[in-house]
Design a protein that fits this description.
Blueprint lengths: L1 E7 L7 E6 L6 E7 L14 H9 L3 E6 L11 H11 L10 E11 L1 H10 L17 E7 L5 H6 L2 H10 L7 H7 L10 E7 L8 H12 L4 E6 L12 H14 L11
Parallel strand pairs: 3-4, 3-5, 5-6, 6-7, 7-8
Antiparallel strand pairs: 1-2, 2-4
Length: about 260
């Protein structure tokens, strides 16, 4: 395992990614890790680093992404534009020959789960929308306690009105922004999806995963929902049960054993 190598994808101090390569010389499957924190500047890429290191140690090329956040130059559309730019930068990385870009997996927790689901649905964005026209196909997404129905999250004022802060207002005032940013509105994505949620999560309710998964399955996407004991932050513990479940799912896909669709835990 080598790295992480820090690569800027834009001029802002928060526009960078960290690439960690697995041992070996051949192309490796790529997993992009998007951290959470309700899109706010208080939390950063340090939340993604342990998961990226674990993935690289298990044979994936891991990419931890930092992006502009609310309170530090982010919000709509800068935050989603950064995620799109980081993904689109992958073919131009110095070690791009070590990356199998035929199908990229995105993993995200909380607001990072929103960004991962949004990245998977970028292909459905209209021309000219922030993030439209992806260069790299996202073929799988792991959504860990994701904020996946932004309108519902806004109505429930999750994260002390974090969605409103991210999008600059509520669904009535910012209807077009919600239409372009809300993962549940960007279906089907064509990506295979795993939603993981803690049964005791009092930060992002499990209903966020359940509603998104039901809509994705109805649209024809392959989706699996798994619930685990515990709360919100346990999902990003690389030694925890929830992450072991994610690793197993990723390994099944890598070995050609994916393709399940179930909405049962």
């Amino acid at each position: 395992m080598t790295g992480p190598v820090v690569v800027p994808y834009g001029p802002h101090a928060d526009q960078f990614l960290e690439l960690t390569l697995p041992a070996g010389a051949g192309p490796a499957p790529v997993v992009v890790v998007l951290h959470g924190g309700f899109w706010r500047a208080a939390h950063g890429v340090e939340l993604a680093r342990p998961l990226a290191a674990d993935l690289a140690g298990a044979g994936w090329a891991a990419v931890a992404v930092e992006y502009r956040r609310v309170g530090a130059g982010g919000g709509w559309p800068a935050t989603v534009e950064d995620v799109a730019a980081a993904l689109d930068a992958l073919p131009g990385l110095p070690d791009a020959g070590r990356l199998d870009l035929s199908g990229v997996t995105v993993v995200g927790h909380s607001a990072g789960g929103h960004l991962a689901a949004w990245a998977a649905g970028r292909g459905r964005l209209p021309a000219g929308a922030p993030g439209a026209g992806p260069r790299v196909p996202v073929t799988a997404a792991v959504l860990q306690a994701g904020v996946l129905d932004l309108r519902r999250a806004a109505r429930r004022r999750l994260g002390a009105r974090a969605v409103q802060a991210f999008l600059g207002g509520g669904p009535r005032r910012r209807a077009r922004r919600y239409a372009l940013a809300d993962p549940v509105r960007l279906l089907p994505t064509g990506a295979e999806v795993l939603c993981v949620h803690g049964t005791g999560d009092d930060v992002v309710p499990p209903g966020q995963s359940e509603r998104y998964a039901a809509a994705a399955a109805a649209a024809g996407d392959r989706v699996e929902v798994r619930t685990v004991p515990g709360g919100h932050m346990g999902l990003v513990d690389p030694a925890g049960e929830a992450w072991a479940l994610v690793r197993d799912w990723l390994e099944r896909r890598r070995d050609g054993r994916g393709g399940r669709t179930t909405l049962e835990p």
